[in-house]
Amino acid sequence: MRTFFLALLMCTAASVSAAVPLETVQWTPDSAKPTEAGMARRVQVYFLVDYTEQVGRDKYWGLRDMARDPKIASKFEYLHFLVAVGGAIEQPKEGDPVENWCKGVSNNSGLVRAFGGDATAVIVLVDGNGRITNISRLGDPNKEKKDIEALASTAKPLVADPSQFPLSCKVPLADLRVGDINRSMKNLKKAGNDAPVFVKLLTDRVNEMVELDVALLNDPATMAADKMIALNRLNGILAEFPKVPAASAAVLAIKKTKDDKQLANEQTAYAMLTSYIEAMKKVSAKKAKDVQLQWIPGITAKFGGTYAAEVATMIRKASRLDQTDE
């Protein structure tokens, strides 16, 4: 147990297969830094906000209320993200209510434009299966909360039952709530004799998550898009927890996917979508719509019926690409 505990302390979160690219995001000093297993199979809520506009900065206060909502943000089924581009996020003051979200900044406004065109703020919802289900402009908080809550049944988070964990592990458990396994392991040192119990509960659940994805990959009835999502998630979890008991079965399941032509098509389509997002990070606001119109119709036309085409259609709607300029 001690050896495995030390291995956990060494796990890193340099790269996660998030629905929204987080590689260039710099997490704020008070923020959690989510890891793959910490994010997996949770409803993920991404707020992408352009802080170069006052309208965008003003959105922050309403979003804080959502991050404090005990019906949503404090539950393990959900994981909230705030990514502010072009500005700094105000730090909470002593005595402020607890906010359960991961906060980061990016200097590239193209991230917001990639998902919402000329929108100042965008919400991206991902269900517990890892699928993006909605991309829209931030608007009605009540509707957005309902949309988030509607996805709860799809979640199978790392912590299914918080009451199973020892009371002495309150702090590391709070770290898991915001997806930060690294910070959780560091704070676990203070749990004393209860630390091994925490580690066992955690690693048993990680192994179950690996088994779920192995079953998806081995099931002939699994749709190619779902296989792609499961494959990305599985690779990420195994990179973080390479020695779980189900690892060998996972390696075999991954190898079997190499000759899957439908899966390969989904991966090619999603690679094109990823290239579009990267391209949007390099263009000015003035040229953004033109670049979107070069990419989005091409993705939907060339890869119709794929998950990437579904996401591209959501982006088209959120970006209002079909509206003519006045």
Write the layout of secondary structure elements.
Layout: H1 2-9, E1 26-27, H2 36-39, E2 43-50, H3 54-68, E3 78-85, E4 102-106, H4 110-116, E5 121-126, E6 132-137, H5 141-149, H6 170-177, H7 181-187, H8 195-218, H9 224-240, H10 247-256, H11 261-280, H12 285-302, H13 307-319
Parallel strand pairs: 2-3, 3-4
Antiparallel strand pairs: 1-4, 2-5, 5-6
Detailed description of the structure:
The N terminus is likely disordered. Among the domains are: 113 residues, 3-Layer(aba) Sandwich (Glutaredoxin); 58 residues. It starts with a helix and ends in a 7-residue tail after the last helix. The chain is built from 13 helices and six strands. The chain is α/β, with parallel strands linked by helices and 326 residues long. Strand 5 and strand 6 form a beta hairpin. A six-stranded mixed beta sheet has the order 1-4-3-2-5-6, with helices on both faces. The longest helix is centred in the middle third of the chain and has 24 residues. It is globular, with a radius of gyration of 20 Å. Helix 11 packs antiparallel against helix 12 and helix 12 packs antiparallel against helix 13.
